[in-house]
Amino acid sequence: MRRMATADTAAETTTIPGDMAERAASEGLLTLGVEEEYLLVDAVEPRAVEAVEEMFDHLGEDVRDAVQHEFMRSQIETASPPQLELGGLFDALRRQRTGLAAAAEAAGCRVVAVGAAPAAGPVTRVVDTPRYHRMRERFGDLSPGAGLNGTHVHVSVPDPETGVQVLNFLRPWLPILQAATANSPFFGGRDTTYASWRSMLWERWPTVGPTPYLESYEHYGTLIADLLASGAMLDEGMLYWYARLSANYPTVEIRMGDVCPSLDDTVLLAALTRALVGTIMGDLHDGKRAPDVPHSLLRAAHWRAAHDGLEGANIDMATREQRPAWRLLRQLFDYVRPELDRHGDLELATVLMDRLRSHGTGAARQRALLSQRGEISDVVDWLARSTAGAA
Fold it and tell me: GO MF terms on file (predicted)?
């Protein structure tokens, strides 16, 4: 029986096991969960294909419950179960990617972790659900081509009021995390000159952008009600701020990044995100207030992240000056180092940071490969191998 869970409910389908919840509470640890969205491409050519229903027909029982439909028929999504250990998260995500790759092969296609379709191809249709048809009718062609694919990280928080304050503290750091995930330099067969073209396409939706500064959980609810009343979103699942509260579980969800080509990049993002939330929780305990960074400056920083990735510059929110993006990511790493250590993540996160520094973002790797081979098809071949863990 095919499951019809959709993208905006993906991370809400799994509760935290009792023993994990007890350990998290007793040791003051934060749980992690990750959603990844993927593009489906032809088995030979680099173009996107509408193969999601065939994919579901071939999913193994070990991954079926972790897989959901996304907006377009050329997309598919997974959601990991909650985890305390980075190793457990890596294993869960690897199992899901391997299962998807096997199902794709059986369905005559490939699954690719990339932010936007690199090669030219047909505009695909939305998945056949009433909600997605309503979205298409209301918002038209805001998601062009084959769809846009991101990574969403969920981190537990004790209550919604604390979660709102965590969202405020996250705001200055999210552009540099976005830069680290940049993985969509090509779109429709051409180089867009951006590291994350998905980010630029995604911002056309009316509720996409930096999370506003929030006075309270009540304020958060008021803004949602206002957006619903305006018609800018059909339901709370369409609140596409770069960080938001889960509608069903006690987590904050960080959702501004491209899907990453390799699990190394995904797990590093998850580790840094959890450590950042943990560090913020300590700042809240000490009575600190989040800086109210101007919305215009945040938008500028997110634009720089989309354009430059980690290979260029971004904005130091403390000084409002341009600095090398990699240096800002290192600054974030140093800031959250105690929480990485407390959660047992420091050693692995250090290794993954070194790997990211040596090979660059997904966007940088795609451009390097294109310069060597000269064909978008070679880039898509590499992405498919990397997604399945073979590159």
Answer: ATP binding; glutamate-cysteine ligase activity
335 to each of 7, 165, 276, 338, how far by Cα in Å?
32, 18, 8, 8
Distances (CA, A) of 94 to 79, 110, 273, 378: 12, 16, 19, 23
Mean pLDDT of 20-29: 89
What is the separation of C-alpha 171 from the centre of its chain, rounded to a whole number of angstroms? 16
Domain ranges of the chain: 7-379
The dihedral through the CA atoms of 182, 188, 194, 197 has a sign that is negative
Q: Is 1.20.1260.10 the CATH number for 7-379?
A: no
Contact 7, 70 (CB under 8 A): yes
For 124-155, what is each residue's pLDDT tens digit?
899 999 999 999 999 998 876 899 999 999 99
Q: How far is CA 54 from CA 8, 51, 72, 112, 257, in A?
A: 22, 5, 14, 16, 28
- 13: pLDDT confidence band, cut at 50, 70 and 90? very low
How far is Cα 50 from Cα 45, in angstroms, rounded to an integer? 14
> What residue spans of the chain are helical by DSSP H?
18-27, 52-57, 61-64, 86-106, 130-139, 160-170, 174-180, 197-202, 217-230, 263-285, 295-308, 325-342, 346-359, 362-373, 376-387
Length of the chain: 391
Interacting residues of 144 by C-beta distance below 8 A, sequence separation 6+: 123, 201
